[in-house]
Amino acid sequence: MILGALHLAAASQGTMNNWLIGDESFGYYETVGGGSGATVKSCGADAVHSHMTNTRLTDPEILEYRCPVILREFGIRADSGGRGRQTGGNGMVRRIEFRQPMTLSLLTSRRASRPWGLDGGQPGEHGQNLLRQVSGEEVDLGSRCQVQVARGDQLVLSTPGGGGWGAPVG
How far is CA 98 from the centre of its chain? Predict the structure, then answer.
């Protein structure tokens, strides 16, 4: 908000995209990056933690070794940054399959609203948290929740892109 008020950068992904899992035998907490907002001089960065410090993702091999999960997808969320003369950064996609029943908690933002652009730049895409149940049902988990997941269920965490700067050219 401060960077936008000072007209220095379009909106970024918002708060960290926090996901937590656990049961009586283990607990795990992770923050996932998203897109940063563009500035008058540069495009936003893809798949980064924005406006925060002292965090990083766990390596996929370590995550799967220490926790009963399989990381099925981990990448940049294409075309999620807002269009503009300078494009907003793209968010991330992380798809996690659960290998046993456990509790999943999410604390995320910009799921209903989109990260705004500046000076005619388009907003970035909003994030989405989906639970693909082994039954075939797909449930939108919203921005904050605590749910029980089953073996074979998958969390699809799609983080927001950043807003663009300036009216798109062409």
Answer: 19
Q: Please tell me the pTM assigned to this model.
A: 0.94
CA distances from 18 to 79, 80, 126, 130, 135 (A): 22, 19, 15, 14, 25
User: pLDDT digits over 106-127, tens only?
Assistant: 999 999 999 999 999 999 999 9
Question: What pLDDT band is residue 56 in, cutting at 50, 70 and 90?
Answer: confident
Output the pLDDT for position 4: 82
Order of strands across the sheet that contains 138-140: 69-77, 91-98, 154-158, 128-132, 138-140
